[in-house]
Specification:
Layout (H helix, E strand, L loop, with lengths): L1 E4 L2 E7 L3 E5 L10 H7 L4 E6 L14 H9 L6 E6 L1 H12 L4 E7 L27 H13 L1 H13 L5 H12 L7 H13 L13 E6 L7 H10 L3 E6 L6 H4 L1 H12 L5
Parallel strand pairs: 3-4, 3-5, 5-6, 6-7, 7-8
Antiparallel strand pairs: 1-2, 2-4
Helix pairs in contact: 2-3, 4-5, 4-7, 5-6
Length: about 270
């Protein structure tokens, strides 16, 4: 069943406990398609297209709180949420702002802060440096490129996500195929979503994520270094970490079987 409510498109399929899937920057819910047949045997999947991407319309204003609010309005109560990359930050924001909606979290290739930050006396939220991200210039370059040559920029971004992975070529191909299955986001929507990645810093709030949280991370992730997952693990109230050897930023595609096993094991622990 496909429903668009409050400009957010959600595809619902399967039977069982509610499991929400939130994709990353520039993509759409189509990116989860290779996992649907196996996951929908155990869960009722709610596959979200973030505002301005896939079949979802852009929203105003467009920032992390607003995106989280729009997505939260479409969610069933007491759901488990899987968020990948930007989708992980949206999932964290939903959990912080609407804790009653969330049962457990799975964060894939995500981080509280994607970009490196220098010590800033004016930053009253978090006055420490952060070197477990990537250079902010990388995001600035993507922002400039989106306006110049959208398709080339997306190809570069998809390649960057898979860089270093043991089967990078096939994973890039899969990402490109899934990317092309739904309407092309506007450059404005991509730019604004990129700005969320550039500006978001949830480090000071991670300790308030009081839901059991599984971190799934590739050890070759170049967009969100695995050290960021280790930092999260140390600061989450209830965190579990699964590092996937040979995986980069999209372990759910490059290591599908391991990924599904990790998610099912975490969300459906065997009864004693």
């Amino acid at each position: 069943m496909n429903v668009t409510a409050n400009n957010v498109h959600v595809e619902t399929i399967g039977a069982g406990p509610n499991l929400v899937l939130i994709h990353g920057w520039g993509m759409s819910g189509a990116v989860w398609q290779p996992l649907v047949k196996k996951l929908n045997k155990s869960f009722t999947l709610h596959i979200v297209d973030l505002p301005g991407m896939g079949f979802s319309r852009p929203i105003e204003p467009f920032h992390l709180h607003a995106v989280a609010e729009k997505v939260a309005e479409t969610l069933p109560a007491d759901a488990d949420i899987v968020g990948w990359s930007l989708g992980g930050q949206v999932a964290m924001r939903i959990t912080l702002d609407y804790p009653d909606l969330v049962r457990r979290l799975v964060l894939v290739g995500s981080t509280p802060c994607f970009v490196n930050k220098s010590f800033d006396q004016s930053n009253t939220e978090y006055k420490t440096t952060w070197d477990l991200g990537i250079d902010p210039d990388v995001f600035s370059n993507f922002a400039d490129s989106v306006n110049e040559d959208y398709h080339r920029t997306m190809t570069q971004f998809l390649t960057l996500q898979c860089m270093g992975a043991s089967d990078a070529r096939s994973t890039v191909k899969l990402l490109r195929n899934k990317f092309s299955e739904r309407p092309t986001p506007s450059s404005q929507a991509l730019f604004r979503a990129l700005n969320i990645l550039l500006e978001t810093d949830l480090r000071a709030e991670v300790e308030h994520l009081r839901k059991p949280t599984l971190l799934i991370h590739g050890d070759r992730d170049t967009l969100a270094p695995v050290q960021a997952a280790h930092w999260m693990m140390q600061n989450l109230p209830t965190g579990f970490l699964r590092v996937m050897a040979g995986a980069s930023h999209a372990p759910f595609l490059s290591h599908q079987e391991h990924f599904i096993d990790a998610v099912v094991q975490f969300l459906e622990p065997p009864t004693q």
